[in-house]
Each structure stands twice: as C-alpha cells, then as structure tokens.
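so my prof wants the structure for this chain in the tokens format not the other one, which i didnt know existed until like an hour ago. anyway here's the sequence
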Amino acid sequence: MKNNSIDRNKIESLLPHREPMLLVDRLINIVHLKSATAIVNVRKNSFFVQGHFPGQPVMPGVLIVEAFGQAAAALTAYGINPKEYENKLVYLMSVEKARFRNPVLPDCELCLHIEAVRSHGRVWKYKGIAKVKEKVMADAEWTATIVERNK
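here's what i got, hopefully its the right format
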C-alpha cells in the first residue's frame, strides 16, 4: 500500500512541470486513484505577484485551474502502475464550471480538495474545491487524458 502523502520531490518525479510553473508543494490525504488534498503555498515572492496586480497581488484564476490540473495529474500518475505510466504525461482536455468565489492572496496555504469522478480508458474526469482556512476560494470540474510523452 502506498503512502497517503507525497512531497514536492516525488511530485517532480511524476510531472514534467518545474519552477516557476510547478505549483503543487505536496499531496496529502491520498485515497488511491480517488482523491487527495493538494497544498499550494502562495508566497509574496510567487512569480505572478509582481504583475498581477501591482500593489494588490492576487493569484490568477487560471493558475488556480492549473494547480487543480497538476494535483489531479499527480494523483493519477502516483496511483497507476509505474510501468504503465512510463513515458506518459497527463494533459488537460477541458475545464467546466470553473468558479472563482474569493481572491487568493499571497502568504496563504491554498488547499485543493480534488476527486477523480470517473475514468474511461485514458480519459479522466475530476472535480475540486480550493480553500484557504476552510473558506471556499474556487471550484471547478475538468477532464484530462494520459498521452505518450514525446521522446
């Protein structure tokens, strides 16, 4: 049985993302191929703060959606057979019902509660809720697929 949490180093081994675009710091409360909570540390020195928006920084909604996608990809890649995932990537296919309810400000821990709703072959459907200290910041549903990595 696998651990029910993984750190940033393990996430880097599962995803192609690197600084500054690797947004997820760790996954906790992992339920094999079903759900997890991703932790995103939104910092005052995060790459988007200087320009979005000067004097009143806020994490862009599109990066919250990106973090949802990264968290789901890490959950899926971590859960499937390593030999099956070898030379594969998880690509975002669509985003539905994304809603941004409150601004995500720097110096917070953004918790993304994600769930794999269903899978059909290489296509997976997910949903998630983003919270800061139990306050809902955003929610979304999205679809991703597992594809061959270009060599």
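also thought this was worth mentioning. Strands lie at 26-31, 35-42, 88-100, 108-120, 123-132, 135-148.
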